[in-house]
């Protein structure tokens, strides 16, 4: 699909979101070749797929914010890392 074939939207953000959805749906169907579902089911696919695919990006974003001193990384007794504003860790 080329950009000219995409449905027209008034906002650039809508176009980026639409393109992202199109790519995610195509990617899901390449991996799950027998998949078929309603719009509600596709929404579940996308949610699960994005959660799995985005974990590394979320960690990169958190690491960046920590490196800039904008947030602080802490650790719970079980070893789970937690993140928040520096003021929340000084209480």
Task: Provide a descriptive summary of the structure in words.
The chain has 91 residues and is mainly α. The chain has one domain. Helices cover 58% and strands 9% of the residues. The longest helix has 29 residues, at 39-67. The chain is elongated and about 50 Å long. The relative contact order is 0.07.
Question: What is this structure, in a nutshell?
Answer:
This protein is mainly α. It contains three helices and two strands.
Strand tally is: 2
Instruction: Please identify the structural class as seen in this structure.
Output: mainly alpha
- Helix count from the secondary structure assignment: 3
State the distance separating the first and last CA atoms.
Answer: 53 Å
The largest sheet has its strands arranged as 1-2
Strand content: 5-15%
Shape: elongated
Summed over residues and divided by their number, the pLDDT gives a mean of: 80
Radius of gyration: 19 Å
Helix content: 55-70%
Uncertain residue segments? none
Largest sheet entry? 2 strands, antiparallel
Q: How many independent structural domains?
A: 1
What sequence of helices (H) and strands (E) makes up the elements? HHEEH
């Amino acid at each position: 699909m080329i950009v000219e074939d995409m449905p027209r939207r008034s906002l650039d953000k809508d176009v980026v979101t639409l393109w992202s959805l199109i790519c995610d749906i195509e990617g899901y169907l390449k991996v799950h070749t027998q998949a078929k579902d309603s719009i509600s089911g596709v929404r579940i696919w996308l949610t699960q797929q994005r959660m799995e695919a985005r974990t590394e990006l979320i960690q990169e974003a958190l690491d960046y914010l920590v490196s800039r001193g904008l947030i602080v990384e802490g650790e719970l007794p079980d070893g789970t890392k937690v993140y928040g504003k520096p003021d929340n860790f000084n209480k």
